[in-house]
Specification:
Keywords: Cell membrane, Membrane, Transmembrane, Transmembrane helix, Transport. There is one protein chain. This protein is mainly α and 289 residues long. The chain folds into 2 domains: 45 residues; 210 residues, Orthogonal Bundle (MetI-like fold), CATH 1.10.3720. The chain contains 13 helices and no strands. α1 packs antiparallel against α13. It is globular, with a radius of gyration of 26 Å.
């Protein structure tokens, strides 16, 4: 055995041990971060199931008998059912409308070149750098002129428009990565533009669509600013603004507060758990091509 071989063996062993130790340290850090991130959610869920007197006596304890009536009271007495319905309507409609506009614009900008296409793409992507909230004053006056103040459809239009720049940014990159031969082969087989888009191109960017829709859903579901400015009637409040009114009226009842927070948070948690695979595929599709 040569001297080089006798030295290389211990070196490889040390590198292997170092890699194993690094993997263990990374797992410990990730699990620790997960515990810190989940602790408030667990505390919120547990506290929502405790009676008010028990919660005040021991804020960090476990419920002796789960009090599911807190959710019923928050849903009916505090009108969380109405806030929830408003949020679902506004968010789902805006996400679908904004994604539809984004995918059509991204397909045109990503697969075709026409006069002004570069400037149009720059104009759309400028929305990523300029916060839409800076335009709240002209938006307010425009909506006042059009009769869209205090209207859920007005919120839908604002939200859909605010999501277009991000959607165009993500989807344009995905459409540009698709091989040009796909479109040529489809046209040779007699496919028209609508069939080419709907049956061939669109299914290939499905992971990107899921990513765009999930990110937009989370952002719009949690938005507080636009409903606060554009909505005056409490019956049309979405959940973030409804929570503020809820705090004002039921601020002393912590059990109901926690129940309201769970109602607000649960859809996002469930959506993320159901769509995680699609989001990972969407974020890594460009790497795997």
């Amino acid at each position: 055995m040569s001297a080089e071989a006798s030295v290389a063996g211990p070196r490889r062993a040390r590198r292997g041990a170092g890699a194993a130790l690094g993997g263990v340290a990374a797992r410990v850090l990730l699990w620790g971060y997960a515990a810190v991130a989940l602790a408030p959610l667990v505390l919120m869920a547990v506290s929502s199931l405790r009676p008010e007197a028990e919660l005040r006596a021991d804020p960090l304890g476990l419920p002796t008998i789960p009090e599911f009536g807190n959710y019923a009271r928050a849903w009916t007495e505090a009108d969380f059912g109405g806030y929830f319905a408003n949020s679902v309507f506004v968010t789902v409609t805006a996400v679908l409308l904004g994604t539809a506009v984004s995918v059509l614009a991204a397909y045109a900008l990503g697969r075709y070149t026409f006069p002004g296409s570069g400037l149009l793409l720059i104009y759309l992507l400028a929305g990523l750098m300029i916060p839409i909230r800076l335009g709240i004053v002209p938006v307010f006056y425009l909506f006042d002129m059009l009769g869209l103040l205090d209207s859920l459809w007005g919120l839908v239009l604002v939200y859909a428009a605010s999501g277009v720049p991000f959607g165009v940014f993500v989807l344009t990159a995905f459409f540009r990565q698709l091989p040009a031969g796909l479109a040529e082969a489809a046209r040779i087989d007699g496919a028209g533009e609508f069939r080419l888009f709907g049956q061939i191109m669109l299914p290939l960017v499905r992971p990107a669509l899921a990513t765009v829709m999930l990110f937009q859903f989370i952002q719009l579901w949690n938005d507080f600013f636009f409903p606060l400015v554009l909505i005056r009637d409490q019956d049309r409040y979405t959940l973030p603004v409804g929570l503020t009114a809820f705090f004002t009226e039921y601020g002393l009842n912590q059990s109901l507060l926690y129940a309201g927070l769970v109602i607000t948070t649960l859809p996002l948690v469930l959506l993320f758990l159901l769509a995680t695979r699609q989001v990972v595929d969407g974020l890594t599709a460009g790497v795997n091509r």
